Fold:
Amino acid sequence: MTAKSVDVLLVGGGVMSATLGMLLKQLDPAMTITLVERLDHVAHESTDGWNNAGTGHAGYCELNYTPQAADGSITIDRALAINASFEVSLQFWSHLVEQKILPAPTRFINPTPHQSFVWGEKDVAFLRKRHELLSAHHLFADMQFSDSAADLAEWMPLVMEQRKPGQTIAGTRVEYGADVDFGSLTRNMVSWLQKQEGFDLHLSHSVESLRKNKQDGRWNVRVSDEKTGEERDFKASFVFLGAGGGSLPLLQKSHIDEAQGYGGFPVSGQWLVCQKPDIVKRHHSKVYGKAPVGAPPMSVPHLDTRIINGEPALLFGPFAGFTTKFLKKGSVFDLLSSVKPYNVAPMMAVGRDNMDLTRYLISESFQSHKDRVASLRNFFPEAREEDWKLQNAGMRVQIIKKDAKGHGKLEFGTEIVAAKDGTLAALLGASPGASTAVQAMIDVVHRCFKQRAATPEWQARMKELIPSYGQSLIDDAQLLKDVRSRTLSVLGLRRN
Structure:
């Protein structure tokens, strides 16, 4: 069987692979790129609008990005980093819109205020302190805080309707938040890539093997057509594993040293969904609360306005659950098959040290519709069971890795694992995921295309694509003002 030679092989048709493919084609139009996707459509797993959580993560309203220590102190570093990364994504998308590569912004991004809402003396005190810390930084200078019922009724009317008077409540608000349909964004990027010379898309194809050729240092990758069973081989100079929950098993197939010790902890999710126009039109916001005790950080409850494939809806959740699948359309044996001699100790340690989390996930799985709607009523007091339906979300595979002492540690975030020679990279983990895709893929370029990324040509092109490239939005207030002014205007997120 003759292998097809390509510069880059992208595995997985989600937002990460699409972003990397787009970025590389912008840097070098002559680069040959092939994308293989196991399903018959791109953006069908976690990237799909109905499968991913929140969207438009910028740290404005997600309270889990500003954890509070036992002594009451609050750390804002992660919120700053996520906000700066999202600004990088906005810059890249703005360039693609200006160049007519992406369609009108409303096809994939829409202005949606980002708000937090809490109740009870303890959580109100937390939110007030969080606001004080964040609003003192230029990235969050426009964040508003209020503990006035009148203000909150104006900001989030559905949340405040028929709420008991006298309840201790508070909220924060950033008006220029965004709702992003990453499914639509990804499909539009892949559609443009398909029109470019040197790009190929193979749907319904799964990777069977990954083997490094010792003679030339390239990767021999065998894929199988899910419909016909036909196999084909590729020889790639660089392989990117951007397959969501499927990245870990593929990384293990590569047998690179850097994969040693990594494991995965899968978490399923479900949403309550309302598409009744008379209810949907009464809420235009993303409103986040605090996670229940014992819940994983990505299970922070929120009532979201979502515009998916152009249609508005309200989503509440996510309700986490216990699963052994790594993908929504995966196998119940995914978790078991991921256990290897080099990661069994870390995985067993995580299982032992996170029994409370496991019990929480199992208990969540057995909630009734009535129980879930009862949780919703913390955000929408007048919610009726018959107006909401349950819908399954995508799978999240949290990272398990060895800590400094060689023990197992459960990580809630994303991480790039790359071969030391830069010929292969994989993205593991979940939240904030898609919202920081551009920054994550820039990191891949820096690590795996090191020499070319340092050339004047690529450096100059990066500055065209992302004006803040090479500079810190966290440190430079004027730079942020300049780039944010442009992106809010180009993407239609500017306040009316």
Observations:
- The first helix runs from residue 15 to 27.
- The mean pLDDT is 92.
- Residues 290 and 300 are 6 Å apart (CA to CA).
